[in-house]
Amino acid sequence: MKKDQEQGLYIISIAARLAEVHPQTLRIYERKGLLCPARTPKNRRRYSNADISRLRHIQELTQREGLNLSGVRKVLEMEDELAGLREKVQVLESEMARMHESMLDGVREFKRQVALSRRPPADLVIRSRKGGR
User: Fold this and answer.
1) Is the dihedral of CA 6, 12, 16, 21 positive or negative?
2) pLDDT at 8
Protein backbone atom coordinates (compact mmCIF):
# COMPACT_ATOMS: atom_id res chain seq x y z
CA MET A 1 0.00 0.00 0.00
CA LYS A 2 1.23 3.50 -0.69
CA LYS A 3 2.82 5.39 2.17
CA ASP A 4 0.36 8.32 1.89
CA GLN A 5 -2.54 5.87 2.31
CA GLU A 6 -1.08 4.59 5.60
CA GLN A 7 -0.33 7.93 7.23
CA GLY A 8 -2.61 8.71 10.16
CA LEU A 9 -4.47 11.89 9.27
CA TYR A 10 -7.87 11.91 10.92
CA ILE A 11 -8.94 12.12 14.52
CA ILE A 12 -11.59 9.66 15.63
CA SER A 13 -14.57 11.99 15.15
CA ILE A 14 -13.57 12.85 11.56
CA ALA A 15 -12.81 9.22 10.74
CA ALA A 16 -16.21 8.17 12.11
CA ARG A 17 -17.93 10.84 10.04
CA LEU A 18 -16.05 9.80 6.88
CA ALA A 19 -17.00 6.16 7.43
CA GLU A 20 -20.52 7.09 8.52
CA VAL A 21 -20.29 5.32 11.88
CA HIS A 22 -20.32 6.38 15.52
CA PRO A 23 -16.90 7.01 17.12
CA GLN A 24 -17.68 4.28 19.65
CA THR A 25 -17.93 1.82 16.76
CA LEU A 26 -14.33 2.60 15.87
CA ARG A 27 -13.25 1.91 19.44
CA ILE A 28 -15.10 -1.41 19.39
CA TYR A 29 -13.50 -2.39 16.09
CA GLU A 30 -10.11 -1.56 17.52
CA ARG A 31 -10.74 -3.66 20.66
CA LYS A 32 -11.85 -6.56 18.45
CA GLY A 33 -8.64 -6.28 16.41
CA LEU A 34 -10.35 -5.20 13.21
CA LEU A 35 -8.59 -1.82 13.11
CA CYS A 36 -5.25 -0.59 14.32
CA PRO A 37 -5.01 3.19 13.92
CA ALA A 38 -1.73 5.02 14.33
CA ARG A 39 -1.11 6.76 17.64
CA THR A 40 0.33 10.18 18.37
CA PRO A 41 3.02 10.63 21.04
CA LYS A 42 0.14 11.52 23.38
CA ASN A 43 -1.55 8.20 22.46
CA ARG A 44 -4.38 9.74 20.45
CA ARG A 45 -5.76 7.75 17.55
CA ARG A 46 -5.04 8.88 13.99
CA TYR A 47 -6.85 7.15 11.16
CA SER A 48 -5.41 6.89 7.66
CA ASN A 49 -7.18 6.73 4.32
CA ALA A 50 -6.47 2.98 4.36
CA ASP A 51 -8.19 2.77 7.77
CA ILE A 52 -11.23 4.61 6.38
CA SER A 53 -11.38 2.18 3.44
CA ARG A 54 -11.14 -0.74 5.86
CA LEU A 55 -13.92 0.77 7.99
CA ARG A 56 -16.17 1.04 4.96
CA HIS A 57 -15.36 -2.55 4.05
CA ILE A 58 -16.22 -3.70 7.58
CA GLN A 59 -19.52 -1.83 7.38
CA GLU A 60 -20.28 -3.48 4.05
CA LEU A 61 -19.57 -6.92 5.48
CA THR A 62 -21.73 -6.35 8.56
CA GLN A 63 -24.62 -4.45 7.01
CA ARG A 64 -24.89 -5.85 3.47
CA GLU A 65 -23.54 -9.35 4.01
CA GLY A 66 -24.90 -9.82 7.52
CA LEU A 67 -21.64 -11.00 9.10
CA ASN A 68 -20.96 -10.62 12.78
CA LEU A 69 -17.61 -9.18 13.93
CA SER A 70 -16.05 -12.64 14.32
CA GLY A 71 -16.99 -13.40 10.74
CA VAL A 72 -15.63 -10.05 9.63
CA ARG A 73 -12.33 -10.78 11.40
CA LYS A 74 -12.03 -14.10 9.57
CA VAL A 75 -12.82 -12.50 6.21
CA LEU A 76 -10.26 -9.74 6.81
CA GLU A 77 -7.64 -12.28 7.86
CA MET A 78 -8.27 -14.32 4.72
CA GLU A 79 -8.14 -11.20 2.53
CA ASP A 80 -4.85 -10.15 4.15
CA GLU A 81 -3.46 -13.65 3.64
CA LEU A 82 -4.61 -13.66 0.02
CA ALA A 83 -2.94 -10.29 -0.57
CA GLY A 84 0.29 -11.65 0.92
CA LEU A 85 0.11 -14.73 -1.27
CA ARG A 86 -0.47 -12.59 -4.36
CA GLU A 87 2.66 -10.60 -3.51
CA LYS A 88 4.63 -13.83 -3.14
CA VAL A 89 3.34 -15.06 -6.50
CA GLN A 90 4.44 -11.80 -8.14
CA VAL A 91 7.91 -12.15 -6.60
CA LEU A 92 8.15 -15.78 -7.73
CA GLU A 93 6.95 -14.92 -11.24
CA SER A 94 9.58 -12.19 -11.51
CA GLU A 95 12.26 -14.54 -10.24
CA MET A 96 11.13 -17.24 -12.66
CA ALA A 97 11.24 -14.78 -15.58
CA ARG A 98 14.79 -13.75 -14.60
CA MET A 99 15.84 -17.40 -14.37
CA HIS A 100 14.22 -18.16 -17.74
CA GLU A 101 16.08 -15.29 -19.37
CA SER A 102 19.32 -16.43 -17.76
CA MET A 103 18.79 -19.96 -19.05
CA LEU A 104 18.09 -18.62 -22.54
CA ASP A 105 21.32 -16.63 -22.36
CA GLY A 106 23.13 -19.82 -21.35
CA VAL A 107 21.61 -21.76 -24.26
CA ARG A 108 22.56 -18.98 -26.68
CA GLU A 109 26.13 -18.97 -25.37
CA PHE A 110 26.30 -22.76 -25.58
CA LYS A 111 25.11 -22.68 -29.20
CA ARG A 112 27.67 -20.00 -29.98
CA GLN A 113 30.45 -22.11 -28.43
CA VAL A 114 29.33 -25.21 -30.34
CA ALA A 115 29.26 -23.24 -33.58
CA LEU A 116 32.76 -21.93 -32.90
CA SER A 117 34.08 -25.40 -32.10
CA ARG A 118 32.78 -26.76 -35.42
CA ARG A 119 34.64 -24.18 -37.46
CA PRO A 120 38.07 -25.27 -38.58
CA PRO A 121 40.89 -23.08 -37.32
CA ALA A 122 41.84 -20.27 -39.71
CA ASP A 123 45.36 -21.62 -40.38
CA LEU A 124 43.88 -25.05 -41.21
CA VAL A 125 41.60 -23.48 -43.79
CA ILE A 126 44.54 -21.69 -45.38
CA ARG A 127 46.69 -24.85 -45.47
CA SER A 128 43.95 -26.95 -47.00
CA ARG A 129 43.48 -24.41 -49.78
CA LYS A 130 47.20 -24.46 -50.60
CA GLY A 131 47.34 -28.23 -50.55
CA GLY A 132 44.29 -28.48 -52.77
CA ARG A 133 45.81 -26.55 -55.70
Assistant:
1) positive
2) 79
